[in-house]
Amino acid sequence: MTAFDQSALTRLAAGLPTWRQDRMASSFESFKLLGEPTGAEEDWRYVDYEMPFSGLTPVFGPGERLIAGPFVSALGETSGRVAIVDGTVVESESEGATVERLATVDEGHWGSAVAPDHNKLAAAHAAFATDGTFIRLAPGQVVKQPLLVEVHGITPDAASFPHISVEMGENSEASIVVVYRSATGVRHLMVPEVDLIVGAGANLRFLTIQNLDTEASNVVHQRLLLHRDATGRLGEVGLGAHFGRVDLRVELQGDGCSAETVGIYFGQGDQTLDYRMLIRHSGRSTSSDVFLKGAVEDSAQSVFTGLLRIEKDAVRTSTFETNRNLVLSQDAKAHSVPNLEILCDDVICGHASSVGPLEEDHLYYLQSRGLSRPRAERLLIRGFFQEVIDRLPVHGLEDPIATEVFSRFVSAQAEGRVA
Predict the structure, then answer these.
(1) Which residues pair with 135 in a beta bridge?
(2) At what angle do helices 398-414 and 373-389 cross, to 10 degrees?
């Protein structure tokens, strides 16, 4: 087994341009110096997670692509398709946006919004990522059908580093769906980086569905930069992985820009679903809304920490943050920590969070109308999540998402795994 060492770096960098090799070597120095998260760090608080890089190997070539799952099958007509397997692009076609492999672009287009010293996983991505997709929209270009990006982790006892970059030209418009999956029963660490740049007046709708096998882990670093009057609508569906983490930063830099982040997650077994968000307003007259709902059952746990930061010159900002959690079993846990940091006046902002079981008052009302308790519970679960599903930024996937989420509760209810 080849470890994450100098020999692995040399092998991966072979044949790449000198500038790329230099960046990988510099990032590798950060990787060696940084320790693996222990849970004691503020950014990893509430999480007891071990990342044994010593037990994993880099992937030097892609495995066999997975067959289409329910989410891909339900999407229907697309404007293009990209497939990334074990960090390597194996399919790339588009009738709308320009799509290129990052392995072939020049130095000016291979960028990263995540500093290698952000944490050891970010450093590993910067050092060992060799391929990915670069999606560009020309100024004024409007693509009506969604572009699909499938990201698969196949190789056992390995780590892959897929990279997705999106650059929206001025007044352009597009929808992108990213589906993360892994092979059944395979231990695999996937560390994607997603960089989204939305030009002045542009409109991006971006939906991710994380549905890895529970033997695998997924740690995503995602960044969104919004210019003047731009709109970015993000959707996140968290279903799979033993450990699934989204490290999201949204920069509302341009005056008049707006961002919406809508998410749904459901953990079962011993899953951990971990969401860390920083929404930073620096432009004037900007707006943002974070709205996440999740549930955990068995011994699963969820974590949400969100910071809304309003800089001193970001006047006329409007921002709100909501996180609602259902804890459905005695051993399940949910942590919800919304925060505000306000450095100027003339703003409208707020936050709300809740953690708890299904409301007994609501159950009593439904039972008083003739419903059995199990049926009343199912009705409340459906209503709790449907509000978020209806707000996801890309339409056409509501049915398979609702089916997957609802079936988890129904199965646990039938087996007596919910309180």
Answers:
(1) 99, 166
(2) 150
**Strand pairing of 57-58 and 158-160?**
parallel
Round the CA-based radius of gyration of the chain to a whole number and report it.
Answer: 21
Low-confidence ranges of the chain (pLDDT < 70): 1-2, 51-52
Q: Which two tokens stand for residue 381?
A: 């679960």
Q: What are phi and psi of 42, to 5 degrees?
A: -60, -40
For residue 192, give both structure tokens.
């994607």
Tokens, residue 8: 């692995």
User: Residue 171: its pLDDT value, please?
Assistant: 98
Question: Which residues, listed in sequence order, are joined to residue 233 by a DSSP beta bridge?
Answer: 205, 260
Going 190 to 240 to 119 to 54, the CA torsion angle's sign is negative
**385 near 293, Cβ under 8 Å?**
yes
pLDDT at 1: 44
Report in angstroms the alpha-carbon separations of 284 from 136, 200, 278, 379: 27, 14, 18, 42
State the residue for tokens 């709109």.
Answer: 231
29 Cβ neighbours under 8 A, 6+ residues apart: none
Distance (Å, whole) CA 331 – CA 271: 12
In Å, the largest CA–CA distance within the chain is: 72
Helix (H, G, I), strand (E, B) or coil at 180: strand
Contact in structure between 139 and 172 (CB atoms under 8 Å):
yes
Query: 395-417, pLDDT tens digit by residue?
Result: 999 999 999 999 999 999 999 99
Asked if 134 and 163 count as a contact pair (C-beta separation under 8 A), the reply is no
